[in-house]
Every structure is written in structure tokens, then in C-alpha cells.
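Running this now, will post back.
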Amino acid sequence: MQSQCSRSADDRQQGAPLDVVEAWTGQNASALKRAFRDTNEGFAGRLGTSVRTVAAWSANPQLIPTTEIQRALDTLLFQAEDDVKVRFTLLVGNRPTGASEQVATVRQTPAQQRLARDPHIAAALSWLESSFIWDPRSARELVAEELAALDPRAVEAQARRLAQVTRVQAAEATRRYYRAGFGQWRPYKARLAEQVLATTILTQDAWLDLEHDLGSGRGNFQFHPSVRREINLSRRVAKEAARSLAESIEKGSQIVNAEIYSLTSLDVQRGVISGSVGVIDFVEFALTLNLLEGELMRSIASEESSASPVMPIRSELLPDVAAVLDFSGRICAGGALALTAIARPRGRGRDPDYLLLIQERSGSVLNANQRLAVIPKAFHGPMADYGEDAHFSATLEREMEEELFGRTDVDSTVSDQLHADPMHPSLLSDPMRWLMDRQDSGAWRMESTAVGINLVSGNYEFANLIVIDDEEWWVKYGGQVRANWESSGLHRYSSLDTARLESLALDPRWSNEGLFAFTQGCRRLAQIGGQRVRIPSIELEF
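Update: finished.
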């Protein structure tokens, strides 16, 4: 049954309200009650109907109100204040037609418009719907209510407080939380200039200083498509996911529902790294394990972690070291990142050296935002071929194109991937084609230096070193190196500048995985760089 969408000209001249919803259902009527923030009794009074009728809409969303009540609902919505109209539009999902477009465009903030229209947010909401029983409210309704209740100034103030949490504080908080059961495992620490650099990266001796050649895409990672599993969220996690999603929308964080790999097994030996992966949707990670970082940062910022930190979401999702290492039993997303070193000829009063590239992460990225990191850095995920792309050397090559050489067609945040072979030689940028034409020639190399698991969110971190040894590359293409939107700044360092490199290593702004990859990369570069390198001594702390 449908109500009439429009009224006669005579009705309009007499001041009758326009219909603003084509088909009132119990779900839409109940949403209007919530938009008014009314009780069943109060809303029944507005409509002139019974409390039992209003309650029935929540119990049976498919119930169709009578024609008289539909007209009353039309009138009530038409005469409502703008903030009520905006809340209603968000709650019903903003699928306006006809006169209802007048409601959908009323005073919506950018965040509210994004909730209503962004397909990646819609994917997140759909996943939340399928992972928790939300009756009587939907995930969209809860996120809309959370968003409407947010004070942008409070969100900004909290972001400033959390940005002040240091890597050292996070390392100490996770160490205290997982204080038992480390065994052969330990949080990664390095020593430089009599200072200990602590991180949240869980590792062991056999996972460090690997010297594993990644040339020609070598690797032993296998793709298994059976990793997708049904997830049933607890009420605590579901509500935190809805709150976090609303906050991310308000802050403008980039959320793209691309497929990423989830680790299911891992075997690390010197010279050989092997394992297996499946694929999950990014929102599945963003709305589960990624919640742990925010909880940890809030705990530290509020000084709750002065003793043994109480973190209920962590206690449910990643309670102990055994759970951290149970790759097949949990979501285990992760990434590949690399310290990039580019040989330069003599110039400007300096000897031949390597140029080292360091980025400041943008505030728009979902994790490690506004922190220092090596570049490239990316989630490990497929582009076109699930099997070939499972080797993390493929992720590094793609990210070099995207993060260093400006190719937007391999950036999943910009557009869908439509090329059958995105890394085909005919599509490569000139800097990347030069490198790919010289694989295994000694002109450049990619090496895996270390593997770790980030205790902040359980991510696996494959640390690597990319070295371009042929000076010709920098002479030809140095001017084409440019970071993408994920960076708010790109900084360069000379491998001969011992003092600046020491200051860089001691900078408290490093992300945990960034410092892990930087120090491991520097240790390896010091071994193979010859006269081009005067890197300060970095020792492992046991």
C-alpha cells in the first residue's frame, strides 16, 4: 500500500502539507518516532493514535499504517524542525524521491551526508547488520544516533589528546597487559645512543635480521579462499563498532571497503618466509580488531593504564599472547612496509650516498595517522590475482607505484580496479618500468628484514628494505618521486648524515611498525651500503 505522493493544487493553496514519504512502513514510522526522540506514549499523542499501534511498528517493521495514519505521519514530518528531518533522513537511509528530496537536503553536515550516501559506509553498516542482532534498532539507526550526538569540538579535542600518547606509553601499556606468557616472544626494542627504543611489535630472534631476498616476486605465500567466516559480535563490541564508525565519519577518516588479506599461517626462517592467507573485507577488520587501538589510546590518555590497564574490548578480541599468535582463529590483517634507500651521485658538497625517505602519515588514514613511518606502507591485499598478489613483494611494488610514483589507478581508494594486469609493463610509470626491466641485475633489490605482530591491533608487519644501487635511476627519475594523499609530508635524509639519522631514530613521533622497519632497515643497510653509509650503531635490546 502506498500513500499519495502529491496533493492537488487546491490542497496546496489551502496550505495542506506535501507528502514526503512514498511508502510508510512500520520501520519508517518507528524511525520518525526516534527522529523526534520521543517515547511510544509521546509519539502516539502527536499522531492521535494508540500506544499499542506505535509499539507494533517496532515489533513488525513490515506493518503498513492505515491511510489516515500515513497522512498524519506526512503532516508531522513536513511540520517538523530541520534537525528532526535530518535525523529521519539518516535513519531511513536517505533514498529520497519526489518531494522527499526536500527533506534529504535540509542542513545535513558533510558527515551526515557521508553516512547517507557513501557506499563504503553502507558496506560497513551492512556488515554490522549481518554480525549482530540489532532489534529493535538497525545498525544504521544506531550509527546515525551516535553521529547526531557527537560534538565535533569534543571529537577534535579527543583527537588532540590521543595524538599526545607516545609510542613509549603504548609499548609500556601493552607490555603490562600481556605481562605473562611471552616465553620466546618479546616486544621489539632497539638501543641507540644509550637510549632504548621500545615498540609494541611482538617478535622473536628468528624473525629478525632476515636478509630474505624478494627479487622477481619470490615468496611462498599461498592463497586459501576459505578464510571468510561468520562472525557474531558481542553487544559490547557491536556498540563500540557503531560508536567508532560514527566518530570516523565525523573526523573524515578514509574508509574504503577493499579486500585485504588475513593471515592464517606463518613460518619464518632465515632466508625463507612462507605462510597462507585468505581475504576479508576491510570493514571487517576496521570494525573489530582495529577498535583496539582507540581503546588503548583512550586508556592511556585518561591515565587508566597506570596499573594493570582495563580494556574490555581487548579482553574479548585479543586477550593473551596465545590469541595474538592464533592466526587461523582470528582476523589477522596486516601490511608490508619498507625503508627506501636510493643511491645518489656526488653533489652539493657531499659524497655519493643513499637518500632515505620518511613520511608523516596523514590525519585521514585510519591507523598510525600523524605518525612517522617508512614509505611505502600499505595493507597487504590483492589487486587482481589473489594467488600472485599474496606474495608481499607484489604489495610493495604496487605501493611504490602508488605512494612514490603517483599512479592513482592502482589506488583502491580512488577507483575500482578494472585492469586485468595492473602491473603490466605497458601500464607502469617510467620510474617503475626502469626498475622492473632490471630485476635481478644488481641495479636494485628488495629484501625482507623482519617480521612482527603489532600488539596494538594484532596486525602482522612485514618489514622490508628497498635499495636502488644504480645512481642513474635518481638522475633520471628523482624529480618524479612524490608522496600521495596518505602522507602529510615527505622528508629525505642522507645515509651519510649520522647526526640527523640519530635524531630521526629518537623522534617520539614514530609509529611502532615504522620504527621497527626503520631500525631493521638501517641495520641491514649498514652491512651492505659500503662507503655510502654512516648510519649510527643500532643494537637489539634483549
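The CA atoms of residues 257 and 372 lie 25 Å apart. More later if anyone needs it.
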